[in-house]
Amino acid sequence: MPKFQGRKIKKLAILGGGGHARVVADTAECLGWKSIEFFDDMWPNLHNIDKWPVSGDTNSLLKKVHDFHGVVVAIGDNDIRLSKINELNEAGAVLISLIHPAATVSVNARIGQGVVAFAGVVVNTGAVIGVGTILNTGCSIDHDCFLDECVHISPGARLAGAVNIGCCTWIGIGASVKQAISIGSRVKVGAGAAVVNHVVSDTTVVGVPAKPLIID
Fold first, then answer.
1. What are the beta bridge partners of residue 48?
2. 26: left (phi over 0), alpha (psi -120 to 50) or beta
3. I want to staple 137 with a disulfide (CB 3.0 to 4.6 A). Which of 48, 68, 81, 155 is the partner?
4. Rounded CA gap, 103 and 123, in Å?
5. Which helix (H) or strand (E) holds 20?
6. Is the previous residue joined to 44 through a cis bond, with omega within 30 degrees of 0?
7. Which of 106, 128, 133, 131 is nearest to 117 (CA)?
8. By C-alpha distance, which of 141, 92, 134 is closest to 114?
9. Rounded Cα–Cα distance for residues 98 and 104 (Å)
């Protein structure tokens, strides 16, 4: 268990160093986190991210996870994010979720460990948001949706009621999904697509209506 005797300022570790990680840090500041350290596998070539220090790589964080009151994986790639979350869980990290104050999340929704939800997000009653999922700026998740582990819902995307989305699926910016649609694992839904039919795993769909992408 973490040892925090004598500490007054809560410490947050963020694993990841890209633009997404900066938005995670900004959200954390909005929620009152005062001490934020980054860890990224570009270290030691990467020393700072904006005003925040980069203190080491993944292995560095794994060795000192008990120094932090909370840890968040801020990596956009769904599969890598899931792998890092599993490593941190095994090391005993306190994986937390960060819900921006300007997000609206029903008290009757269930939010998993390590979720981030940015400004303008709406999550309605009965929705289940799986471990490590990214709810990006201004997306909406309607009633009774189920999102498995490490899904990424991009900015402005819309899920109607009772949509089911599998592990590590990515829903592109501005896409929309019809009610009661099932989308498999590791699916990619293109920007602005309209998904009106079920989508099997390991498929990329694009267009209006969304259809499988065929590469010649």
1. 53
2. alpha
3. 155
4. 8
5. helix 19-30
6. yes
7. 133
8. 134
9. 13
pLDDT in tens, the chain (216 residues): 444 334 457 999 999 999 999 999 999 999 999 999 999 999 988 888 888 989 999 999 999 999 999 999 999 999 999 999 999 999 999 999 999 999 999 999 999 999 999 999 999 999 999 999 999 999 999 999 999 999 999 999 999 999 999 999 999 999 999 999 999 999 999 999 999 999 999 999 999 999 998 776
∠ CA 193-194-200, nearest 5°, is: 90
Q: How many CA atoms lie within 13 A of 108 on its CB side?
A: 7
Q: Give the whole-angstrom CA distance, residue 104 versus residue 106.
A: 7
Residue 173 tokens read as 């910016």
d(Cα 195, Cα 159) in Å, to the nearest integer? 10
Helix, strand, or coil (residue 154):
coil
| CA atoms of 172 and 138, how far apart (whole Å) | 13
Report the DSSP beta bridge partners of residue 110.
128
Task: Report if pTM > 0.85.
Answer: yes
30, two tokens: 């909005």
List CB contacts of 91: < 8 A, sequence separation 6 or more: 62, 65
